[in-house]
Amino acid sequence: MTSINGDFFEANVSSRIPATITISPEGYSLHSGENQLRSGRVEDFTVSERIGNTARRLQWIDGALFETTENDALDSVLRLHPKAIRGGMAHRLESNWSIALGSVAFVGIVIFSLFKWGIPAAAHNIASRLPVTAHELVSTGALKSLDQFIFSPTALNTNTQSDVQDSFASMIETLDGTEFNYRLHFRKMHGMPNAMALPSGEIIVSDAFVELASKEELEAVLLHELGHVEERHGMEQVINASAVSVIISTALGNLGGVNELVAGVPVFLLQSSYSRKNESAADAFAFNQMARAGIDPIHFATVIRKLGTTNQHDSDSDDTTSYLSSHPGTEQRAQRAMEASRRFNSTR
Ligand SMILES: [Zn+2]
Predict the structure, then answer these.
(1) What is the CA(144)–ligand 1 centre distance, in A?
(2) Does the domain spanning 2-94 belong to CATH 3.30.930.10?
C-alpha cells in the first residue's frame, strides 16, 4: 500500500483540498485529513503522462482531479496497476537518452538518405525523360559565359582542328543513332588539358588537351564526354542541385533563392563535377563504344594517366577546375580501362 500526497479539486470547484491517495491491490482511497473523499477501483481514473518532473493529474470521469508531484511514488504504484496508465510512453522516451539520441540519428539518416539517394534517383529518372530541347535550354548561355569568364579562343591550326572534327564525327557514328545535335568546340583553358560536355551535346576540348593526346586517346575522352550527354548526366545534376536548393530554401523560408538558382545554371554547369557513379558510367560507355569502333580501350588508360601527371604539376599554379578534379580516382579508372582492354583483345 502506497500513499501519495497532493491536491484534490472537485469537479467545477476551483478551490484545492490538500489530500492523500492510498492505492492498494484492492483499489484506491482518497482522504483529506480524516475525511474520505472518494474510493473505488484504480480503473476509475486516468493518469496523465509523465513529462519530466511536472505535476501529474489523476482525472475522474466526472471531472474531479487529483494533482501530485510525487511522480516516482506514483509510477511505482501504477506499475502494479497498468490499466490506469495512459500514454506513459512520452515519459519513458524522454527519460531514456539512448532512445532520444537514436531518434535524432534516425531523423538524420532519413534526411541524409533523401539527399544522398532519394533526390539523385528522382533526378536521374526525370533527366532521362526530358526531351532534348530541355537539355538544350539549360545549356543556353553556358558556352557564352565560359567564353566570357574562363576560356580564350583556340590557337590550334585549322588542319589540326579538322582532324579532330573528323575523329569526333566518326565517334558519333559509333552511337546507335542519337537525339542530340553534337558539336565540338576548341578553346584555350589557361593551358590546362581539359574536356567537358554541356547537356545540349556541345563538347569543348582545350588546346592543351589536343596537344597532349594521341588520336585514339582523344577519341577515348570524346566518347567519355558523349557518354555524359547520352546518359543525361548534366541535366541530372542540374535537377539534383535544384531540388536540394529548393528544399533548403524552403526550409529556411527563402524562396528568392530559387530564382537565383535558375539564373545560375550555366555557372553551375561549369563549377560542378559529376558523381563518381556517373563518371564510371561514362567510362563504361566509352570502353564499349571504343571496342565497337575497333579502338583498344587501353588508350583510355594511357590518356587518363597523362592527364593525372599533367594536372599534378599544375595543380598549385592554376585554379581552373581541372579534368582530374572533376574526374576522381584516376588509377582505378585506368585499371578498369586495362580490364576492358584485356576483354577487347581476347575477343579479337
Ligand atoms: Zn567525366
Answers:
(1) 21
(2) no
